[in-house]
Write a structure and sequence with these properties.
The complex is a heterodimer of chains A (about 220) and B (about 300). Chain A has about 220 residues and is an alpha/beta fold. Chain A has helices at about 10-15, 30-35, 40-55, 75, 80-85, 95-105, 150, 180-190, and strands at about 1-5, 20-25, 60-65, 90, 110, 115-125, 125-130, 170, 170-175. The chains are: A alpha/beta (about 220), B alpha/beta (about 300). The interface of A and B includes residues 157, 163, 166, 170 and 198 of A.
Chain lengths: ~220, ~300
């Protein structure tokens, strides 16, 4: 899923304080599962803002509303009344949410309450780990099903660098070396010969480096 | 001989080669390179010009290499994948070759988090292995990475790489070096050898894979300046293996600097006996004056 963490309250205040009526818009999919921007968290943030703004004598109302997914028009359409009443919409979705709101409500000021950080796997309860960099040309069949683009700090395609030690990445003892994991897995599967082949250079034009990407599913045009 | 490199000529002749390291300054001062070159010139066959070593900004390796050439000392220009994409790497290679650079060491590069600009974007468009293949294609194709022909003079570079026998997974280290040989290197310089036993094991694997026949292996060595430095390298530097007996030897020394040089010389003497070792790379970082003494004591005098 996509993971996002809430910004510091001070930064949120800086974005919203100049405006009277604030709508905190929650999103009940990815950010609800990672317990940062779902209905409960949107309500909490709205209440926190009400108390702080009231204390500082800022006029206006702070409302909260949550949709199932902010990344689709039909859900954003369902909150048009609340959006109309607000001077600014503060989205607790991943960055797709506020940008979707901008697309759907072009006249409205929109601000992000979150920093979006990754596409991650829930490795254990409440721990998300980056597993995909959306590079546009998946190569994990050659790396034992473990992605070095997302999980190696240097996006290496041809084996571990000289900084891999005791299964840890050189950047931090907290970070596992993806190539050690790849090596161990291929060794266990008896597929180590795979690592003799030179891979790349990678076609980064298929990633975000090639410009923003669009995906169309044929046969489903309106 | 694929290039006009003196280092390649020496290695191909079967002579035991000696290279050292010359770090460019954190300023625009050419005198630093001139002074270091004067210290090293008569004692080594070539010097590595580091490229933003440990991700700290310094004078570009191409410019420093050119100054080095002017001093009559052959540079091994280092190039990392961390700071440049394939366009910039190829452009710098053409420029360096035009300035007379004959040796290029292809590196992935330390992660930018270790340096003085930890917020920088790490490029890593290529890794060291795809970079090696690109440089080989530029020389022998001659063509750019995209397959387009280089119609003028091609960059005739003696291509090298690094290898760390002390990194993990150990069984893969010689195989990874073999991959670099397949990609096109002619020589390799290793991480600093303190644990000679493990290095011997690595060399054994290299011989089994035919790596030492297809590429010249220079073992990295370094003089320790103090017992504190030995402990620091043992405990704090990633990818370094300093045996306890060396730390003990340094701790018990009356003259630590002299002992550090002797430890280095003793390691060189052991390394020279290992089949397939073609030379040593002396990494006396910010202690260039020790190199002549190491070379003299080890009997490597040019």
């Amino acid at each position: 899923m996509i993971t996002a963490e809430r910004k510091e309250f001070d930064e949120i205040r800086q974005m919203t304080d100049p405006h009277e009526n604030v709508l905190v818009a929650g999103c009940n999919t990815c950010v609800a599962v990672c317990l940062t921007g779902g209905e409960k968290e949107a309500e909490q943030l709205a209440q926190q803002l009400r108390i702080a703004r009231n204390h500082d004598g800022i006029k206006g109302k702070v409302e909260a509303v949550t949709v199932l997914r902010q990344c689709e028009n039909e859900y954003l359409d369902s909150i048009s009344e609340q959006v109309e009443r607000a001077d600014i919409v503060l989205s607790t979705a991943c960055s797709i949410g506020p940008q979707g709101l901008v697309f759907r409500y072009p006249a409205k000021r929109v601000a992000p309450a979150m920093n979006t950080n990754m596409m991650g796997y829930v490795k254990e309860h409440h721990v998300w780990t980056e597993y995909c960099a959306a590079c546009g040309s998946c190569l994990i069949a050659a790396t034992g099903g473990i992605c070095p683009v997302a999980r190696c700090a240097k996006t290496l395609l041809n084996g571990p660098c000289g900084g891999s030690q005791n299964g840890r990445c050189e950047i931090s003892p907290e970070v596992p070396c993806a190539w050690q994991e790849i090596y161990d897995r291929l060794a266990a599967l008896g597929d180590l010969d795979t690592l003799k082949r030179i891979v790349g250079p990678k076609k980064w034009n298929l990633s975000n480096s090639g410009g923003p990407r669009t995906m169309k599913k044929e046969g489903f045009e309106p | 001989m694929k290039t006009g490199s003196n280092l390649e000529r020496i290695l191909e002749s079967g002579a035991f080669a000696v290279t050292a390291e010359l770090g460019p300054p954190k300023s625009a001062d050419p005198q630093v390179i001139i002074d270091k070159a004067a210290i090293l010139k008569d004692h080594v066959d070539a010097v590595n010009i580091t490229d933003n070593q440990t991700a700290i900004v310094r004078m570009s390796s191409a410019a420093a290499a050119k100054i080095c050439i002017e001093q009559g000392l052959e540079p091994v220009m280092q190039m990392t994948c961390r700071d440049r994409n394939r366009l910039a790497i190829q452009a710098d290679i053409l420029g360096a070759a035009a300035l007379g650079v004959k040796n290029l060491l292809c590196l992935t590069g330390d992660h930018q988090c270790f340096g003085n600009h930890p917020q920088a974007l790490g490029v890593f468009d290529l890794d060291s292995i795809t970079m090696i293949r690109m440089v080989k294609d530029m020389r022998d194709g001659p063509m750019f990475q995209n397959g387009e022909e280089i119609t003028g003079p091609a960059p005739k570079l003696f291509i090298g790489a690094a290898a760390n026998p002390y990194a993990d997974p150990f069984p893969y280290r010689a195989l990874r070096l073999a991959k670099k040989v397949d990609a096109g290197i002619g020589f390799v310089q290793t991480q600093i050898v303190f644990n000679v036993d493990k290095f011997e094991e690595f060399m054994h694997q290299c011989r089994e894979l035919g790596v030492s026949e297809r590429c010249r292996i220079l073992a990295g060595v370094a003089p320790l300046k103090s017992a504190g430095m030995a402990k620091y390298m043992k405990n704090r530097v990633a990818g370094m293996d300093v045996p306890d007996k060396i730390v003990t030897r340094m701790s018990g020394a009356k003259d630590a600097q002299d002992e550090g040089i002797q430890v280095c010389v003793d390691i060189i003497n052991r390394i020279r006996e290992i089949e397939g070792v073609a030379g040593v790379h002396i990494m006396a970082v910010e202690w260039e004056t020790s190199v002549s003494e190491i070379v003299r004591r080890a009997g490597l005098k040019k």
